# Entry
Amino acid sequence: MSAVIETKDLRKTYGDLNAVDGLSLDIREGSIFSLLGPNGAGKTTTVEILEGLRTPTGGTAHVFGTDVSAGYSGIRERVGILPQDFEPFDRLTSMEAVTYWARLFRKGMTRADGKRLLETVNLTSRADVQAIHLSGGEKRKLGFAMSLVGEPELLFLDEPTTGLDPKARRDLWAVIQGLRKEGRTVFLTTHYLDEAERLSDDVGIMHKGKLAARGDPGDIVMRHASRTTIVLGGAGEAGLREVTRRGIAANLEDGDVTVHVSDPAEMKQVLAKLASLDISLKDMYTRRGSLEDAFLALVGARMEEGVLQG
Amino acid sequence: MNRILADVVAFGKQYIRSKVGAFFTFVFPILLILLFGSIFGQTGSSSVPLPVQDLDNTAMSERFLSALNNTTFVTISMIPSTVDIAEHIGANSLAVALLIPSGFERDVIDALTTGSSAVNVTLYGDSSRSTFGVVVGVLQAVSDQMSFALAGARPVVGIEIAPVGSPAFRYIDYFLPGIVGMTVMINAMFWMTATCAEYRSRRYFKLLATTTLRKSEWLTSKILWFTLILTASLFVSVAVGIAAFNVQLRIDVLALAFILAGTFLFTSLGMLLGTFVKDAEAASALANAVGFPMMFISGSFFPLESMPAFLQTAARALPLTYLNNGLRDAMVFGNLDSALTNLAVVAVAGAVVFAIASRAMSWKGR
# Structure
């Protein structure tokens, strides 16, 4: 498949700050690509360059083969965008907003079309409500609907599920997966690692303007978080003392004792030792490495709501 | 064109629903017209109130008062003969009052029959006020007429009044076009400055930049919207003026051309100011700083000729002056040459400001 997006050594600097520092990417048609990273990693700057909203300091960025620095007019109708800081027009209803947006994309939209579109994001019941009266999550859904009005081949969704409740997030995931089935390309930026892992064919982890890792989520986990973790649920500090007394390296995480093993042989050995211990447990299970573990390994810190911890 | 119309419709809905826009377009000018029309509606060529104390109360004094009344330049009201006129003037803050002394009729007859000296009525008032001068003139004319009539002579030289401009030109007729000009400025300039600030702070510009709508189309749609709404405001204001004060104004193609040119100029000026502000507070402060002085010294409320020379010079540098003058040329005086000159000034200024604003405004980030 051909590359819908292609960047080479893309750079954007603000004074001494390298917001984007030599980013080279190619996103293939019909895929869902997630750009991950904490706040300030350079994700939004990268996306806004690709959307034609910022001019790069150096390098090149092509979308549908068009150099975005030279102009976007030829491809604007093929691209849908949900910005990170999206705010709807307060005094327009949801229906009016999508109809207005459709006309700005040279598309006719009947009320029935508008209803179908709002139904996609589960906002039909709020079709005739002015945006000022919508909740934060509903506003986000409206923004998502507006990004779809032009039936774009490429969608940039910058933090699309921020502010949504768990059910609304899952509903939106289903819509995004549906877009892939229709052959559309989705460029997603998110700081929800589970979201990226669940949705993406292709992931890039960005840190301090650079791409720290790139590839299939499973590959990234294999490369950077291949360990398996044995979890002794509720073992507590007493359990940790017992485990470490037997010479097993372990950690205490939220009352659980965790032991990392690198391969099946080591796991067999550790399990044998643990079986001989007499410690109080709620449960015991194994956990495979996740994108979150890979992120921790690559960046050196965990991420919560876009903020690096520790 | 479809995109421009879509933007006009969307912006118009937001404008009307905000209620603030509708207030300043329709309610505010109506309030000003009613308020100023009520306060100043009796000035201009209308009569001056003249309180009179008649201590003679005879057929001769009544004849004199009747002659005064017939001039239509004064409206007589009576002060009771029992009060002290000087105290009455002070207590009621009267600008002017007339005293007809006791024995007025007797003294007039004496003067006619015996040739004794003329009989005086006394006019109290502040000679520095214009109403005093008007009453002195009227009294002089009536006294002369009465003297001629009583003496059996007739005047050989008289004065004929020839009104200038609209046949019944009054303050309200002068005032209303100024309010129309001011409404154009307030709505187009203040609103656009605030809109630009809001669109920048809430990232609407960036959002619009992701569509196929061009910046020039967005600007055009704002000019179209304000032309529509301000034309409606013009008709409503004149209708209220006619209903409340029987104003004698005309709305013709030239008046509508001034609405279009004025909207073009002040919408563009609002866009230009909007490029310098980042939030609503700054927009409000800047628009007020530019708009309020312009509102007061550009002849919206008072004739430029009544202001000090340095303010008149300043007014000539302000675009609202030309809009106000042009609207009066078109709506009141019917002065085509002067109207076209003012229209050209407004239109050219609008084109220059529009070109600068279009270049200065950016929708994208750095």
Remarks:
- Chain B has 14 helices and four strands.
- Chain B has two domains: 2-41+168-360, 48-151.
